[in-house]
Specification:
heterodimer, A: 502 residues, alpha/beta, Rossmann fold, B: mainly alpha
């Protein structure tokens, strides 16, 4: 088996974005007739590796090989010619076109220059039969559920008769039946000597389906081996095992018995009937895989999206705020994950950004006092360690300093509870350390901090408790003593050895 | 046996797809029919040959510019230069057709100008990644200026036989419209034509699927330009001469017709049959209100209210779901 050249391979590829290394010297080889699993935490570099393999990005170093020969210029078009098909996480479908027209898009059969509908129907039907899509081919894709659209996406890849099939979390929106159909299909394609790369966060699927695994952690390859004789626990360890270093301040209990926020049967966005208590003086972590409803939990509490609840108490007031100004008045502050679009107004000065929540509170027609604004801003900058001229536009700051500004703007209002959405994403290590210190200090000063994070170590080392969210539910509430990266990751993925589930 | 079944289904893919596209515009078709009946009732002359001819002639240029705007909106673009293009088409027709170029040469000049300017606009918008609304606003000044340079004041001439053919008591306008619609169906049955929808709604996904996104969009601008100058030629034939500002009202009316017809601003939403029905509704509304004795001011107000209503009703339905 090793004698045959891999259909598609990466040899020692590296890739950085803006000087930030995302992949370092990673190799992977896709063999015909094998389902190869690619595992890794959020941000480990999986998507980047797929984009390199499919020609959507080009590596800074290393090479991509097709049939054992290095390709000097890999492009999406070349990848398609070479028989490489990718089922992306974001769908590439057009809602107003029919199922068949979507499946054939970009590779339509032609007759006299016109689209050959009869031929398209035959080939699209064959692809649909493979994935068990029995909807009429003429149905517009916009009428289908998300899961069915995912199946159309897979049918679209199969329509192109690939030799290499890359699936990026194909089952995240599929029902159990659809997942079963897909599993059977992949078994069959494997029998037809197709090389398959399978990315999934569901470990039991990976264990059942795949023969070989590559594990990425922080952009490097930590395992490249046969799945035979490996168990789920070992995979989790390979994905998370890293040294936290002295990034985190020493943890000290500061939680009080009182609840700052308390909700029962809370529903907002993806979250369904959740009970949650946030204590005064604690850092409560919210963990889980990306997109399980964590963000809706914060936004719902903050009144930024519609939310329903059986009963709620927020900083002593009954009921949810129901709107952002009301939430601010109750002492809630929210720092969004996407600071460039939601957190800051990049082209405006740092001072203006810091003063924005204050503007909302001033009487509408009162004249501004520039001097008072400058003084407040200077105080905030000193407190949070933001250096340099505050008259510069916010976009002149580094990501870490931008995050500090997004945080600083709430400080003059002495919020009682901070809702933070992934505050350290894309932030350099030194700023991370400062932010961690600040968060612990807030908690020590009797504020409640809710920290939604995609970074598991910071949940483990910073938080008093961690609520793990999966599919719109809090599936585990881990107390300080039970906190470990393995516990969080396995609860997030629903791995079998989960013994901490609430 | 399975091949028999699948080939039977195969023959029946094109028409079911077409039928499903009607779903979104059924309500609009019903409203248009109601207005047609009302109009026929108010103006029984509609059912005579000359009444029908006159009615289709008053609708024809609006139908063309509605198509020109709709094809751009489907790609996620828009044009504010529609009116200027109509004017330019009119003055070129009026200055060339009685000259040495003759009718055929003049018509070719009109068509080439439309395709050329449309294609150039598309190239600027697509390749330089500039906002369509700004480029076409600037374009409307340039194109409108060019029309005034060619013909500073109304003048020129269209051969009388051509005016009689297009705008006399013949259904030529209707026949032309049917032909243009058939050509559009043909274009939409080519891979490039159908890619319009994908390029407008999900350009990244379309690019990853191997669709020539940029090419499809530039082609749409060129076709749009051709439709506009063609409408200009027809308007010149109607009036028998060229007028360098005759097209001005068409810019906003083309957007109104496309929006009435259910074309969305975000690209990839709506159908050409909807845009055509929207343009028919707009010209029917104007005629019916005229016959009902609305003052021109009241007509404009009513027109505006109907357009807002047409956009709001589907939105309400979506919210209720």
């Amino acid at each position: 088996m090793l004698a045959t050249a891999p259909l598609l391979a990466a040899r020692g590829v590296s890739k950085s974005f803006f000087g930030n290394p995302v992949l370092r010297d990673v190799s992977i080889a896709l063999q015909p007739g094998r389902v190869h699993a690619l595992l890794g935490e959020n941000g480990a570099g999986k998507s980047t590796l797929i984009n390199l393999l499919s020609g959507a990005l080009r590596p800074d170093g290393g090479a991509i090989e097709v049939d054992g020969r290095p390709v000097s210029r890999m492009t999406p078009a070349y990848a398609q010619q070479a028989g490489i098909a990718v089922v992306q996480q974001e769908l590439s479908l057009t809602a107003s076109l029919s199922i068949a027209e979507n499946i054939g898009l970009g590779a339509y059969p032609r007759r006299f220059g016109l689209l050959d509908y009869p031929e398209l129907a035959v080939r699209a039907r064959a692809a649909c039969d493979l994935v068990g899509l029995d909807e009429p081919l003429s149905m517009p894709v916009g009428h289908l559920s998300l899961g069915r659209r995912q199946m159309v996406e897979i049918a679209k890849a199969l329509y192109r008769r690939p030799r290499v099939l890359i699936l990026d979390e194909p089952t995240s929106s599929l029902s159990a039946t659809e997942t079963k159909v897909l599993t059977n299909l992949l078994e069959r394609l494997r029998g037809e000597r197709i090389a398959i790369l399978y990315i999934s966060h569901r470990l039991n699927e990976v264990m059942a389906l795949c023969q070989h695994v590559t594990v990425l952690k922080d952009g490097t390859c930590t395992a490249d081996r046969s799945l035979e004789g490996t168990d789920a626990n070992e995979l989790v360890r390979l994905m998370v095992g890293r040294d936290p270093g002295d990034l985190f301040p020493r943890w000290q209990a500061s939680a009080l018995a009182a609840n700052a926020i308390s909700v029962r049967n809370f529903s907002a966005g993806l979250m369904r009937d959740v009970d949650l208590d946030v204590r005064t003086g604690e850092v409560l972590g919210i963990g889980g895989l990306v997109g399980q409803g964590q963000e809706d939990l914060l936004l719902g509490l903050y009144g930024a999206i519609p939310a329903r609840t059986a009963s709620a108490t927020v900083n002593g007031a009954l009921g949810l705020p129901g709107g952002v100004p009301k939430a601010n008045a109750l002492g809630l502050a929210y720092v969004p994950a996407d600071r460039k679009r939601e957190g800051l107004h990049l082209i405006h000065s740092i001072i203006t950004n810091m003063m924005l929540p204050a503007f909302a509170r001033l009487p509408a027609l009162k004249l501004r006092s520039r001097r008072a604004e400058r003084e407040t801003a200077r105080g905030l900058a000193a407190q949070l360690g933001i250096k340099g001229d505050l008259g510069r536009p916010a976009q002149a700051l580094s990501g870490g300093n931008q995050q500090k500004v997004a945080l600083a703007k709430w400080m003059p209002h002495h919020p009682l509870a901070l809702l933070l959405n992934d505050p350290t994403r894309g932030v350099d290590v030194e700023t991370k350390r400062e932010i961690y210190m600040m968060l612990r200090n807030f908690a020590a000063a009797g504020k409640a901090v809710v920290l939604l994070s995609s970074d598991t170590p910071e949940l483990v080392h910073l938080c008093d408790r961690v609520a793990v969210v999966r599919e719109g539910q809090i599936v585990a509430m881990l107390e300080r003593g039970a906190l470990s990266e393995e516990a969080i990751v396995s609860a997030a993925m629903g791995a079998e050895h989960q013994k901490v589930a609430a | 046996m399975s091949t028999v079944a699948s080939s039977r289904q195969a023959g029946a893919l094109y028409w079911p797809v077409q039928l499903r596209r009607n779903v979104g515009v059924r309500g609009l078709f019903a409203v248009v029919m109601a207005f047609l009946v009302a109009y026929g009732f108010l103006f029984p002359g509609l059912l005579t040959a000359s009444g029908f001819a006159k009615f289709t002639q008053s609708w024809f240029p609006l139908a063309l510019v509605a198509m020109a705007q709709a094809i751009l909106m489907l790609t996620g673009g828009i044009s504010l230069a529609i009116g200027a293009m109509v004017s330019l088409g009119a003055v070129i027709a009026a200055t060339t057709m009685t000259g040495p170029l003759g009718v055929a040469g003049g018509a070719a000049a009109v068509a080439l100008t439309g395709i050329g300017i449309g294609g150039a606009t598309g190239f600027i918008v697509v390749k330089l990644r500039l906002p369509a609304i700004v480029v076409t606003l600037a374009g409307s000044f340039i194109i409108g200026g060019a029309a005034l340079l060619i013909l500073p004041r109304p003048g020129g001439a269209i051969p009388e036989w051509l005016s009689d053919l297009l705008a006399g008591n013949t259904p030529a306008a209707f026949v032309l419209l049917v032909l243009i619609v058939l050509l559009w169906k043909l274009y939409l049955a080519t891979p490039l034509g159908l890619s319009l929808y994908a390029a407008g709604e999900n350009p990244v996904g379309a690019y990853r699927s191997g669709v020539p996104v940029d090419g499809a969009r530039v082609a749409a601008y060129a076709i749009s330009g051709l439709l506009c100058t063609g409408a200009g030629l027809f308007v010149a034939a109607q009036t028998g001469s060229g007028d360098p500002v005759i097209g001005t009202a068409f810019t906003l009316n083309s957007i109104a017709a496309a929006v009435l017809g259910g074309i969305g601003f975000l690209g990839g939403q709506g159908t050409m049959r909807g845009a055509l029905a929207g343009s028919l509704l707009l010209s029917l509304m104007i005629s019916v209100m005229f016959f009902l004795g609305f003052t021109p001011v009241a007509q404009y107000v009513a027109q505006g209210l109907i357009i807002i209503g047409a956009v709001a009703i589907p939105q309400f339905r979506k919210v209720q779901q």
